[in-house]
Amino acid sequence: AAAAANGATNFRLPMRWYTDVIAQIREAVGWHMPVRVFSDGDNEQLIEILGLGNAERVILVSAICDMLSFAQSTVLVASNSSYSAWASYLGRMPVVWFQGTLRARLYYDNSNTEIQTGLDETIEIDFLEHVRQIVGRKRARLLPSQEVEVHAGAR
User: Fold this and answer.
1) Is 98:117 a contact under the CB 8 Å cutoff?
2) Is the pLDDT of residue 125 over 90?
């Protein structure tokens, strides 16, 4: 948190921030949404997220595949990375950024789509309601074998 406040751009976000954000989103939508984790970290570094249940590590073969898969997210819990920024831009999904890491707003048309929150902070109710509505609409259109997911880019 201090690194972001001091203008640093290359630092690891606290794993607890990811788990807290995912828990708040899951509570808001009323179900244990699947989480797909894209990261250059190893499983040991990601154990807090992977241990949440209904969470899986995604390893693809190329950077472009990762980015395009990210862009298919229902909700993006963004890391402090250009991958998250590109996925956000391409996917136009609701995005949660760690406080101080949002470098440029991408969604001027809907302020409920892109937010920042810090460690131990409660996510804005308007954002959670927006996510709940999107997830509800998406779930209504899905076949039983399909899922809605949260992508957590953990660096």
Assistant:
1) yes
2) yes
